Amino acid sequence: MTDEITYAPAAELAARIRKRELSAREVVQAHLDRLDDVNPQINAVVTVDPEGALAAARDADDRLARGQEAGPLHGLPIAFKDTHLTRGMRTTHGSPLFADHVPDEDELLVERIQAAGAIRIGKTNVPEFAAGSHTFNPVFGATRNPYDPTRSAGGSSGGAAAALAAGLHPIADGSDMGGSLRNPASFCNVVGLRPTPGRVPSHPASDPWDTLAVAGPMGRTVADAALLLSVMAGPDPRCPLSLDTPGAPFRAPLEADLRGLRVAWTADLGGRVPVDPEVTAVLEPQLRVFEELGCRVTEDCPDLDGAEDVFRTRRAQLFAQGLGELLDAHPGTLKSSLVWNIEEGRKLTGADLARATAAHARVHLAATDFFSRYDVLLAPVSQVVPFDADLEYPAVVGGQEQHSYLDWMRSAYFITVLGTPALSVPAGFTPGGLPVGLQVVAAPRAELTALRAAHAYETATGHGLRRPTLPHS
């Protein structure tokens, strides 16, 4: 019964709870039991509150019994990313400096998800200050990949992705600057959606005008990610970039006829990034699926010249702005890659920022032109398959040496600069059983296009149905 509940789609679980075929207490307890059983092997959920979760589940059942309206996530357990503020539950950011930090407020997305009926069971692991696409930190250690615990689960939403894959909870929140929703989804055979900037407003935010960092949903299916997006999205007057469109339309069925859909494919972002042959060997045969669905598939890529400078410059500025004072106050306490990124930001001049701003505008116009000719862009999510969890980052990709913790993430962060929605959908496995994700990108604000294309592909292939075989503890 536990496995039947813990691997059921989130939308199905929520429907069964509303019909009172299952109680919220049964659902929460099943996930807590699963967590006790397998979390020690992967270290995905790092703070757990079983008593609080079960009390909230009892309250959810009581409200349903009294005939009160149930939200779209009523009774579904969730562990929030450990960089997202949770009132009364510690939020460590993966840093010893915040190991005992207990916020007195919920972040906006946490507030919205709980208002929709979700039940907080804990927090998921992150890299230190969410820096990097491999999840490890000095507070909790590394998160392991459920498909091979010797490998990375990706990051920075690595705990969230690993927990989804292992059946620890049915939906998960995350955030994404350089691929932090997409890379871990690719590594863990789940779905991660980076929305258009402003689709999911963030508050509080250190820079409310920033378009690189966004929050978004994760799920084991495209429909479950869309369900979570439906409650995360929507305007907020405190967020100057937030879009006016409400989130409810994302709960509509995703079935669509893809015949005639204009699809572009690029294996290496137009020759701009190295990609390991293991990745392309899995992805290239997937193009046939889109052709069989009636899509017109063409090899092409947006003009991404300048995207490197835009991302590196803006990221460094944001790190110096957000973490510089902390570095000065606590020298020697931050990981070396984080210190390097902050110091890179401190070297920037006004001319550097002006150059990056102009390049960003040019890349945006190139994206606008590209998506006037295509509906969807397909590309690798990650340039590598899940690597050794004891490494900070892969040293070589496609025969090319990687010099920093950012270099191997270009296939995700170049797409970040476009300002478009992009999701990772399970696309198959290497001969050694490691997951590979396909990146599905659509025009700005066209999340539904990306979701429908990914849903049709997911339905046709079933790659996301393959579960990890973790031994019971």
Automatic annotation (TrEMBL):
Top-level taxon: Bacteria
Domain Amidase: 26-448
Pfam families assigned: Amidase
Name this protein carries in UniProt: Amidase
